Amino acid sequence: MLKRVKIVRATVRPDLREEYLGRWRRFAEAAAEVGARASLYEDFVLPGRFVEWVEYEASGATKGRIGEALQGADLRRACVRREGEDVNYREVVLFEQ
Q: Domain with 38 in it: what CATH number?
């Protein structure tokens, strides 16, 4: 199955951290509703530097709904900088289930 992975780096000021986390939580809940997996990682050494990771089916409908969820969460509003990439991957199955 073809998947799409979106990886974004975000830098958040300390005074906007709680707002950012709330917005990310709303996005992750909306993403889960369309079958996506969303994870957020914060740099251990530099608090406020995050990596947003989202994996979902590469269908046009799903991509559109993920885009709507991102737009609704308006994550850029709580970031100093937000940049990333969106690529297609095919899962490599190493073990039969």
A: 3.30.70.100
- Render pLDDT for 25-64 as a digit per residue (tens, 0 to 9): 999 999 999 999 999 999 999 999 999 999 998 877 888 8
Per the structure, the count of domains in the chain is 1
Residue 95 belongs to some domain of the structure? no
Q: End-to-end CA distance of the chain: give it in Å, rounded.
A: 15
Give SS3 for 44.
Answer: coil
Helix, strand or coil for residue 55? strand
Q: SS3 breakdown of the chain: % helix, strand, coil, rounded to 5?
A: 40, 35, 25
Residue 27 resides in a domain: yes
Taking only the tens place, the pLDDT of each residue in 54-77 is 999 887 788 889 989 989 999 989
In whole angstroms, what is the distance from residue 86 CA to residue 21 CA? 21
**Strand 37-42 to 49-57 pairing:** antiparallel
Tell me which residue range forms the domain holding 48.
2-90
